[in-house]
Specification:
Shape: globular
Number of strands: 23
Oligomer: single chain
Radius of gyration: 29 Å
Distance between the termini: 20 Å
Structural class: alpha/beta
CATH topology of the largest domain: Rossmann fold
Helix content: 25-40%
Number of domains: 3
Strand order of the largest sheet: 3-2-1-4-5-6-7-8
CATH architecture of the largest domain: 3-Layer(aba) Sandwich
Strand content: 15-25%
Largest sheet: 8 strands, mixed
């Protein structure tokens, strides 16, 4: 991690105004020497004087000035070379280079009747060619000193998607983004080049944008948010070739997402490379003659009485097109009792009973133990996840199309499957979540609730969460929830009525029953409510008994509201895309995954784990360790 501290030096083009000026000030406040580079001598000297005055106490006694100004036209390679020479002469080296200088075209492209030499050609020279020149010179200085360094190039959201009002600006900023992303090899020398891609910020250039467009984009980006992004790119040594997209709608988000990246990667696949480098491929997965698994032998919401453990023969060779997966961890879900009661199967009770026994368990992670004929790109020893029936077992055989490649077979990955994917996909598709909204999540400290609150926060929303108990409330506060309502300490209805009189915009609901009524009545005009479950109605003598919601249609009509159901199996085409994104967020530290600390080991503990989840005591995702011998020798994801 590069620490922002006194003694480092930074070279900032376009440093006399706007984003450049703000970054110069922010760096100086950290005690960093700054060279302010700009075409405007008057404003540049003012900024340098401001920085010197700001640091007069912290920098007292030093032999070099805390800031200097160099007049420079960024599109003039001679002046750029002289500016870098001056910086090195004064500060002896270069740690941080930020290329901020940029302009809009002076004449709209659609109206330009000239050869472009004073309009679009000049804009490209300043916005793109100068960035390439400055980046090249900064790299050479850092290489010659054999010291690590960071270069940040100011691209724009217009470099990630079209800006119709100024295609030249969009083209030049797109060039900056692609140029930056192509420089990852320098990371091997300790030099990281990254790009900032903000939407509109209130600067001299930004204030020329039509107010209507600013409103559509969710308003101006706060300068503090941009500075936060810049400092993240400087300090985080895992970032090289990264483009940090900054919006009010989605907050800080790296582009491309893993899903977008997968669209252009060659068949060798970055995911499989990451897997092979994380867990060595081994052919030493022992395949026994038989294995244990949990089956449903009778229909009941009482999971323990409905299931039993049997030993089944392991048939070899593997069927063509199939994969044998050794399960390491299996995930426990509230809906396990719906499965054991036959609620997820169509037909009469008699027809469903005729299909018994069922293989129980929805999700698991492990290692591929064997592959059948015709299976390509999957090798023995590869970590993988499944989301098909039969995960409560030591081994399971599935068609290869159901295999989801993962980085490691860890419990955190299990949590990302049914629980994480439900939150990620439903908030995007059913809730149509934007930023700047108030989002209410029920049962928020559970397996899926923990993902919902974090994804809502990452999208730039205010999050309200319900839970029962101090430990759960503590977890939710640690996850960044704005308002935690512990129903054991206060009344949810009263809190919502008093603190959110206009209602909440989105509800992520998994409890059902009275909680559904309470949350629906707290929904704002245009509000959207997503029902992903109803755990309070899953058990009991009556089973999954439908409830009557009197007046539901009238209430929906009166406030233009939406209630949407979400069932994960119907979105299987999005599983890998969203799983990759969750793993990415986790790996960069933007997502935390809470796993219930209570240990459940072996298939014989599955019923205990299901009952524990329904007891309401669990915090985070409940997971069963099917094979403790692997978990004891493996590191976390």
């Amino acid at each position: 991690m590069m620490e922002l501290k006194s003694g480092l030096s930074a070279f900032v083009t376009g440093g006399a105004s706007g984003i450049g000026k703000a970054l110069c000030i922010a760096l100086a406040q950290k005690g960093i020497y700054v060279t302010v580079v700009d075409f405007s001598e008057e404003r540049g000297k003012e900024v340098a004087a401001l920085l010197q005055k700001q640091n007069i106490k912290s920098q007292s006694g030093l032999k070099v000035p805390s800031a200097i100004f160099v007049k420079c036209d960024a599109s003039n390679k001679g002046e750029v070379a002289a500016a870098f020479e001056k910086h090195v002469e004064v500060y002896g080296g270069l740690d941080i280079c930020i290329n901020c200088a940029g302009i809009a075209t002076s004449v709209p492209f659609f109206k330009d009747q000239t050869d472009g030499s004073r309009s679009w050609r000049h804009a490209i020279n300043v916005n793109l060619v100068a960035v390439i020149d400055c980046t090249h010179r900064a790299i050479k200085i850092m290489e010659s000193a054999n010291k690590p360094g960071v270069i940040i190039n100011l691209s724009s959201s217009a470099g990630l998607y079209p800006m119709i009002s100024d295609p030249i600006y969009s083209a030049s900023k797109g060039g900056v983004a692609m140029f930056t992303r192509s420089l990852t090899p320098y990371k091997r020398k300790g030099i990281r080049v990254n790009a900032l891609c903000p939407e509109f910020i209130r600067t001299d250039m930004g204030e020329k944008i039509p107010p209507r467009l600013i409103d559509i984009m969710g308003g101006y980006i706060p300068m503090d948010t941009l500075i936060q992004g810049a400092f993240e790119l400087i300090t985080d040594e895992s970032k090289a070739g990264a483009c940090l997209w900054i919006t009010n709608r989605r907050g800080l988000e790296y582009w491309p997402t893993p899903a977008e990246e997968a669209k252009y990667l060659l068949p060798s696949s970055k995911m499989r490379k990451r897997i092979s480098s994380t867990v060595p491929i081994t052919t030493a997965v022992q395949i026994p003659r038989s294995f244990e698994k949990v089956i449903v032998h009778t229909l009941s919401h009482d999971f323990r009485s409905a299931t039993s453990i049997i030993r089944a023969p392991l048939k070899l060779p593997i069927e063509s097109g199939h994969v044998l997966l050794k399960i390491i961890y299996a995930g426990v879900n509230a809906s396990d009792v719906n499965f054991s009661s036959g609620s997820y199967f169509s037909g009469s009770k008699e027809e469903i009973r005729s299909r018994l026994p069922f293989n129980a368990g929805f999700e698991g992670v492990g290692l591929i133990a064997a592959v059948g004929d015709g299976v390509k790109n999957l090798k023995v020893g590869t970590p993988a996840a499944i989301m098909t029936f039969g995960a409560y077992a030591e081994f399971v055989m599935v068609p290869s199309k159901h295999i989801l490649p993962v980085a490691r077979p860890d419990p955190e990955v299990v949590a990302m499957l049914t629980s994480g994917l439900t939150a990620s996909i439903s908030l995007e598709k059913a809730a149509q979540m934007e930023s700047g909204k108030t989002v209410l999540v029920t049962a928020a400290a559970g397996g899926t609730g923990q993902f919902a609150v974090q994804l809502a926060k990452l999208a730039g929303n205010k999050v309200v969460a319900t839970c029962g108990g101090k430990d759960k409330a503590m977890l939710l506060r640690d996850l960044g929830v704005d308002r935690v309502i512990d129903y054991k300490q206060e009344t949810i209805k009263n809190v919502l009525k008093k603190e959110f009189p206009k209602g909440v915009d989105i509800v992520y609901e998994s409890v059902g029953g009275d909680m559904f009524d309470l949350c629906f009545n707290a929904l704002a005009v245009y509000g959207r409510m997503v029902v992903i479950g109803m755990i309070s109605q899953y058990q009991g003598d009556d089973g999954w008994k439908p409830r009557n919601y009197t007046g539901l249609c009238e209430k929906l009509l009166a406030k233009s509201q939406t209630v949407a159901g979400f069932f994960l199996p119907q979105y299987a085409h999005l599983w890998q895309q969203h799983l990759d994104n969750l793993v990415h967020l986790f790996s960069v530290g933007k997502l935390k995954v809470a796993v219930e600390p209570k240990s459940f080991v072996g298939v014989q503990s599955v019923a205990d784990a299901v009952e524990y989840l329904h007891s309401g005591k669990s915090v985070g995702k409940v997971v069963v360790c099917i094979d403790p011998s692997f978990s004891q020798q493996s590191a976390k994801l």
